[in-house]
From TrEMBL:
This is Carbamoyl phosphate synthase small chain. The lineage of its organism: Bacteria, Pseudomonadati, Planctomycetota, Planctomycetia, Planctomycetales. Pathway: Amino-acid biosynthesis; L-arginine biosynthesis; carbamoyl phosphate from bicarbonate: step 1/1; Pyrimidine metabolism; UMP biosynthesis via de novo pathway; (S)-dihydroorotate from bicarbonate: step 1/3. GO terms for biological process: 'de novo' pyrimidine nucleobase biosynthetic process; 'de novo' UMP biosynthetic process; glutamine metabolic process; L-arginine biosynthetic process. The active site is at 328 (nucleophile), 412, 414. Residues 64-194 form the Carbamoyl-phosphate synthase small subunit N-terminal domain. Keywords: Amino-acid biosynthesis, Arginine biosynthesis, ATP-binding, Glutamine amidotransferase, Ligase, Nucleotide-binding, Pyrimidine biosynthesis. Its EC number is 6.3.5.5. L-glutamine binds at residues 108, 301, 303, 329, 332, 370, 372-373.
Amino acid sequence: MGHRFGRERFCHIRVPTTGRDPSINRDCLLERDISTRRATVRYETVAASEQNREIPRESYCMPITAKLALEDGSVFPGQAFGAEGEVTGEVVFNTAMTGYQEILTDPSYAGQIVTMTYPEIGNYGTNTVDVEHHRPSLSGFVIRSESRIHSNYRSEAALSDFLKQNNIIGISGIDTRALVRRIRIEGAMRGVLSTTDLDDASLVAKAKASESLVGRDLAKTVMPAQGVQWDDQLHEWITVDEAGQQPSGDQPHVVCMDFGMKWNIPRHLRSRGNRVTIVRGDVSADEILALKPDGLFISNGPGDPEPLSYAKQTISELVDKMPVFGICLGHQLLSLACGAQTYKLKFGHRGVNQPVLDLTTGKVEITTQNHGFAVDEKSLPDCLEITHRHLNDDTIAGVRHKTLPAFSVQYHPEASSGPHDSHYLFERFQSSLSGSPA
């Protein structure tokens, strides 16, 4: 901290000039009057010969304690929060304003460093209820600003404490707008987030050498250790017509293939009175048939669907034996099992404000999405028809089988943090379990 003319200098950063002369940059000197605590901004022009001089570290607002580097050579310095260490992953972004705890605990983010586009994160804290899995699976968390306070009657801990408890590395204080713009232009990239290595060249080299998501079976890293019977129902804030029903001997039995399933999915199925059994996504068709299910659910999960050949084989053996409903990765796997192909999107769809058109009704749904791959429309077999489209890029958002009670959507109708426009899809599946038209 330095004093000059009764003012305390607490931030000193280099910013590009907005003038016509590109040879001059400006130093932005943020000062605070010691007596009135009023902050002011003063600009100083810097000659071209001085543009590259190093600003003393102690003059920054906050010390640089973490860095995010991308494979294209970009480096974003910031402040560490949460756990310490170093991780690699695909750097992606999510446009949600709320629901950060559900995002953190969504297994579909395995292998990814998630950037939040909304600038203020952590203001309502965290709790033990708003979780979608028993632990976070993402590689790292990137935000513009961590809220200094967390205030909500359900709050139990600060965001930084939640990250520490779950060994997740976070970085704040970076220009997330610049980062997201780069991802949108260049596409999702491999990156490294570190609190231990702050050398730019070293970090960029690590990012370039890191493993891609394409061709990796990430689902096996988040599958449950063994199958379980699911009993939890929806929270009292979420209501459905059949909520609270107790399963009985004559109620439908739904078997869920778990590739990294968000817990609000079985909550929906159980709240409609179904008996719900969760199995690993790599079980065989015979093992599933031995459970005598009335319907099959194919869950969401992380990464590339193409390497999951075992799932494709199992689903293809079951699709003509019972009603089938797939979500997200489950949508891609059902399509693959029917003969379609998938491809990697440039930067994916991740957020709670994704518009989808239901081609059957003509209605538009606002949906939650989290995926980096999509079904290739050119490869769609004759047995499948498109039921939903993403309105931002016209990609396939839902399909159904023309002759069998099987359908799937690319988005999340169960979205715990909302929106709830697509709950009707669970009703559609429920109708198919009882033998009514899907």
